[in-house]
Amino acid sequence: MRKLTYKELQAIQDSIRKKEIHAAELLAEIYDHYISHLENYSKKEFESELENLDQKWSYAYCHKIQHELNKNINKTIRKTQWSLIKSYFSWPKMAFTLLLVAILALIVNTLSWHLQVLILFILPLVYIVAFSIILIVRTRKKTKDIRNLFGKSGIWVRSAFSDRFISYVALPLHFYNLFLNLPRVLGWDKYVPDYLVNYLSIAFCFMLVIHSLSSYEAWKLKSKTTLV
Length: 228
What we know:
Layout: H1 6-17, H2 24-38, H3 43-56, H4 59-87, H5 93-110, H6 113-142, H7 144-150, H8 160-169, H9 171-186, H10 194-222
Helix pairs in contact: 1-2, 4-8, 4-10, 5-10, 6-10
């Protein structure tokens, strides 16, 4: 095993850039594989071995792996978060769930509509936005090295796991616009009884809080092994 020269490392990087991969996780894996493989060969064998690696890790093959990586990440996130959400309906977290529902019901039945919107919707949504920003900043720090190596060729290098995880975290923002803002814009809210609005407010806020808490727990679990 030998240490590769700067020129050889540049040749590896140029070769991997041509594959136009944007997933930082996959780029790091391929780059490490290339280096560990080529360190076992002499300078005379470097070019031929690099060509062999390029044939094995072809453009089509790399993009197939990237596609499979994205699918597996989606499954992993859904499975992890759903497992955490289910835990809120079993003891001892069930006690917290019941207390949360009682507090939400109390807020809806005693406070004015404007205070309800502030406490039930605005604060959780602010938390989700702030949490998403923190995830983006942390991901950029974790992917800085790999972005410096491969991001100069015009490819937007980013963490595939972080992209999909942030999409899941921000999902309630779309529901907020769809179920609360859109009916007001269309004037549908006038035809909904007040008691039904209260029940919907409790249900939506409950899901919002559970989603926020489970997202945070999922991040704590996955941040140890992923670029998020």
